[in-house]
Structures are given as structure tokens and as C-alpha cells.
Amino acid sequence: MKNIPKVLVVDDDANLRKTLSDILRIKGYEVASAGTGTDGIAEAQRTFFNVALIDLKLPDMSGLEVMGRIKLITPLTEAIILTGHGALDTAIEATNKGAYSYLLKPYDIDDLLLHIRHVIELQRSQQEIVRLASFPQVDPNPVIEVDASGEVTYRNPAAELLFPELVQARPGDGVLADIRGALGDGERKRSVREVRVGDATFEQFFYPVPDSDLTRIYMLDITEREKHEARLNRINLLLLTIRKINEYLLVADSQEALYRFVCEALKGLEDIAGVVIGIKLPDYMLKMVAWAGFSDAMVSALDVRGDATAPAGGIMGLAAREGRSIVIADIQNDARFAPLHEMAQEWQLKSAAAVPLVAEGEAIGVLAMYSTQRDAFDQQITSFLADAATDLAIGVRSQRLRSKLEATLGSLRKSLYGTVEAVARMVETRDPYTAGHERRVAQLSSTIGKEMGLRERQIEGLRVTGYLHDIGKIAVPAEILSKPVKLTEIEFAMIRSHSKIGYDILKDMEFPWPVAQAVLQHHERLDGSGYPAALNAGDIILEARVLMVADVVEAMATHRPYRASLGLEAAIGEINSNRGKLYDPDVVDACVRLFAEHRFAFDGVK
Fold this sequence. Notes:
By secondary structure, this protein is an alpha/beta fold. The chain has helices at residues 14-26, 37-46, 63-73, 88-96, 109-131, 157-162, 174-184, 223-249, 255-267, 296-300, 314-322, 338-347, 379-430, 437-451, 456-468, 478-481, 489-496, 498-506, 515-521, 542-557, 568-577, 585-596, and strands at 6-10, 30-34, 51-55, 78-83, 101-104, 143-146, 152-155, 191-197, 200-208, 215-221, 272-280, 286-292, 326-328, 351-359, 362-371. It is elongated, with a radius of gyration of 40 Å.
């Protein structure tokens, strides 16, 4: 009766379990399923499964724990981990802990079936060794029989072909010495060990021959499996590196830093000799902007043109010109890149891949990797590199846009400050006796904000508001502003109206800060004794609280048309004595510290 392979599906998604089980049964497998880790382990205790398909996240335990417990029950069961992208690290850990492989959800069912077939083929190859134990003569794999002393008593044709020293009258060292060493270490029991023979890798299966002192050793060539596992490991490391690059895209502070990080990260991969990034210039040259593993002199030799009329410019030039990934599997034997042969031989470069940096359909540069091994870049690895290059190109374009935006904002900010200062000077021309008042209030307000630990955006707003806080005085007659004697009640009312007039002027202007509201409230007081609305503390915005303290200190510390300066000491005394009553305590404390510690001073004011 034909031995039908058995598959166990462990997943908490009932629909997925049913769909997958139905497909596997159609494909000729015997299938059992479980919705929890506990049920999956119980199924494994009831019968042997060739393959267990295990979801990483189960309701009662992790998929890794399920895999480990099933392997304790039946070590020959191979596990394939099914995981979402966010669990990539755990999936890689699973392969390191004994999983045959893993697939990322949503996976292609054909890929899953291919993985299952590989497992079944591997198990059948191992079982075939046992089946052919009675027929070693026809076994295509080497079979050797030795006695207790390690002398060869039998070798099949495959063993004679692979190990000619076994045919000699007195066998030499080589594989026989290795086998004798294993027997001396206690391998005269049913066991498996792995050995290297030249460029090949074998699993040695030791089987004691019953009722004798003989041991029969069957050798299975697992070179291809080893290559597959090595390739899987390379892909895992590449994926982890690409994830690190994508994370860095979010925090890189410049294009140059981004280029350097990418080169250093990719250079850390196995067998990678060097990584280079070239950016296209208007004249079609590729400017090398970052590299790792190569010296400056080596990189200068890679300068190439990317236009169609240029001679063959190496792999980077071709990738830039055609806008597609280019792979050289064997540099020395690829006639297309003959100009590279001498250079590659000197630098011990065997293969290379170049992928264009494409963003919004435009190739802005090329990422190239060079390996010391032939065939280092297969289709899947190149595809991953192309995805990484696209992400890098998007990051570079974002950096460029950010730089342009910052330059534009800087220009707009400079224009805004110029306009604000011009308005302040216009107000000063109507009140020459208080010239510089707006500038000094702006300086003190922004410095107080910084001392209080406000955000840079708020500090910038305080600076602008300080320049504009008295803009309403433009509507007050100049003779009243500069009158050197006590004002009448009507004149004082006109002066007091400047905060409301300033608000009306500014309220429809689009500032990123509450400028108009702060101008309106900068003569209010916490106890409600201020104007124009007699607001109480809870209704006065922070910007106005800062502005009122700066305005009072500057006004008292400098000259006015109707009096001489009262001095800085008197100004500090005023805000200290009314701290918490008229003025915000935090603002007062910050202002007092600045002057007491000599970290701020008005020009010409003592």
C-alpha cells in the first residue's frame, strides 16, 4: 500500500484551516487540523506527520512552542512556520530553532506546496537509505562497512568512486580516518552525523549490523540542501538589513547620511566585497556619493556615463541607462563587461548586481553590490534589492523635498520678519520717544519663553507678537503719544484703545500663532483689573501673560516722554510684588532669573 504523506495544519483561523486542508487533500495528502497549540500537540501524539504547518500566533501558546513540543514527540516531523510580516524576526528565529522554512502571509499556495514537496523528498531520501540497507550494491549513495577496529570490510561502487583510497591494499586517511574517529567517539549505534568531503557535504548514517561487530555507514549527499539552507539564511539577513534601512529612512537627517548608512549596512552581508551608490547628474555622469568596502581610488575607477551614446560603462552605467536591474553572475566570463575584467580580478570580484533608484518613474541613481562569490545574486535576492532601492529613492526624494521646503520656509520666515520689523519701525516714527520699545519687548518675550521651556514654534510667535503688540498706536494721534505731561481722561482712553485697534488690524491675518489675541490681551491682568475686557486669569492666553511682563519691565526700565526711567530694579520689584496677583508667577520667575543671572540685558539699560 502506498505511503501517503501526512500534513498537520495548526491555525486558529477556521476558514484558512478548512481551505488549506481541502487543497492539500486534493493534492494527495492526508490532512489533520487543529485550532490551538494544545490540539495540535495532541494530534502529533496520536500519529506521525511528515509536515506540520504552524501559525506563529495561536490563542494558547506561540507557534515556536508548538513546534518544539511536536519535535520532542516525533523528531522527524518537519515544521513550516506561517507568519505575518510584522513577525519576521520571530520567523527567522524559528528557522534557527529547527523549522524547515517559513512563509509570510498572505502566501502563494504554489509556494507552500513546493515547500511541502521539498520536505517529503528529503524524508524519502533519508528513508531510502534504510530501505536499501539490504541492497548496498545498487545504492547510488556511498555505503561503507567497517569492523570494530575500523578496517573496511565492504564498500559499494559509489563509495569506491567517491573515495578511491578505500580501494588501496591498506586504506589511507581521508574519510576512513574520519569514520574511525567517529567510531572511537562511540558512534557504533544508530546515529547521524554530518561531514565535509571536498566541496560536498554528506550526512553519515551509522547502523550496527545485528549479531556482529560490523557497522554499516550510509552517506547521503546533502550539498544541495546545504546550499538551500545557506541561501535561506542569506535572504533572512538581507531582509533584516533592508528593515534596518527602512527604519533609518524615517530618522535620517541628510541624503549623505542616508547613503552612507545604506552602504555600510549592505556591506555587512556575507561575501559582499563592496557597495556603491551613484547619483545621476545632468550630463549623464554617475557621481559616486557613498561607498563601503572600496577605497577612494577604487571608487574613482567606477565613474561611468549613463547616456545611450556612452561606451559600456560597467554594470552601474547599464543599470542607469536602461532603468532596470542588471546582474553579472560571473564577471570574468561575461563578455559584456570585458572592461571590468582586469579590475575585478585585482579586487577579487566574482559577481555583481546593480539596481536603479527609481522614484515616481524616474531613475535618480544606482545602487551596486559586488561579491567575492559567483552567482551571489539570484532573482529573488535581486528583487529584494530592487525593493530596497525603491524605498531608498523615495527616502532621497523626501529628503530633497524637505530641503527645498526648509529653504522656502526660511525665505518666507525672513520675509515675514522683515515685514514685521518694518511695521514696528512705522509705529516708532509716530512715537520717537519710545523708539526700540517693540524690538526690546520682542527680545525679552522670546527669551522668557525659552527660559520657560516653551517649544521653538511658540518662542518664534512671541518674537513676532512682541514686534507687533503696539501696532494699534498707529491710530492714536502722534501728539498724544509724545505728550510730555499727564494725559486727560479722554486722551488716556484713546491710548488704551490701541490694543483693540491692534487686534482689529491683525485678526484677519493668517499667522501660525495667536498674534491678534495676544495683542488684544497684553494689557489684561490676572485679577481682572486690566483692559480692554477686564479678563481674569483663566481667560488670558499664555502668550499674552509673557507679553504683559516683558512690556511692563521694558516700559519701567526705559525713558518715557512724561518721565525719566524708573530703572530695572524698580521694574523687577513691580513684577515681583504683584507676582500671582497681576502677573503670571511662572513668567515672573523666568524673567527675574534672566536678569538676576545676567543672562539678559536691554541695550543701554542698567
